[in-house]
Write a structure and sequence with these properties.
alpha/beta; Rossmann fold; two-stranded parallel ribbon; 4 helices; about 35% helix
Length: about 120
Amino acid sequence: MTGRKAIRWRRAPPAGRYGRNSARRPTSRHSAKASANAFSNPDLAEWVAGQGAKGVVLLGAQTDFCVAATVKGAFAEGLGVTVVSDAHSTLDSDKERAPDIIARHNEAFEGQGVRMATTAELVEG
């Protein structure tokens, strides 16, 4: 990701403290979010716009909550969206196994106009 800036969003931990694994790279920005949609924090949209970005690349957990909500939030901000199809995850539900939930959401994301890419496709350029 040479020359690209990354932002990592996570739910605010109790008392606003981050865990030991929150090391920051000089090109990364960490910020808290209070709901599934990372764009519910206006700082994210402001930061993305300030970078001159026309789109975002999404990955993470939980596919059926945070990732899906952030896809909608990014579209609402007028951004293009790429979801890394093999870099988001979820848990089994009572009715569906995690791999099936992920596959269903990948298909739904694509149907919504999301560009789907694998990790290898992004890394290889």
